[in-house]
Specification:
136 residues, alpha+beta, Nuclear Transport Factor 2, Chain: A, seven-stranded mixed β-sheet
Length: 136
């Protein structure tokens, strides 16, 4: 995944940020899930709903975690990185929601992910996240 313009530390930080988001989903913690995002992040859900801001992302996901998605996990394929400006990276990948007993390698991805990550000099965060459905 080594790309021009990204240091090894940047690549590690981005992988850890994705892992933090996956771990928060598995715990059903909307606030921790949203902590991966900037305060003013834009998030497009798979159903096409647009969320604006970390608080909206947290509240929406907490409701999701308290629904039929309780006990699920994210299965995110390795993301391809594309630096576009200093401290700005596009991440492209795919993912799915895994229900209890499901294993990521055996489940077809249900969404194509396009994510914009920004580094404010302190840390990487997601400024934009779009989940495009691949199946109905």
């Amino acid at each position: 995944m080594r790309q021009a313009g990204l240091t090894k530390e940047d690549e590690t930080a981005l992988r850890e940020l994705l892992q933090t988001m996956e771990d928060a989903w598995a715990r059903g913690d909307g606030a921790d899930y949203a902590a991966a995002f900037t305060d003013d992040a834009r998030y497009v859900t798979q159903s096409g709903m647009r969320l604006i801001g970390r608080r909206a992302i947290a509240e929406s996901h907490q409701k999701l975690f308290e629904s039929d998605f309780r006990g699920t996990r994210l299965g995110v394929a390795p993301m391809e990185s594309q630096p576009v400006a200093p401290n700005v990276v596009l991440l492209h990948g795919s993912g799915t929601v895994l229900f209890p007993g499901e294993n990521a390698p055996r489940i077809r991805p249900i969404g194509l992910l396009t994510v914009v990550a920004v580094n404010d000099g302190d840390a990487w965060r997601f400024a934009s996240f779009s989940n495009t459905p691949t199946v109905r």
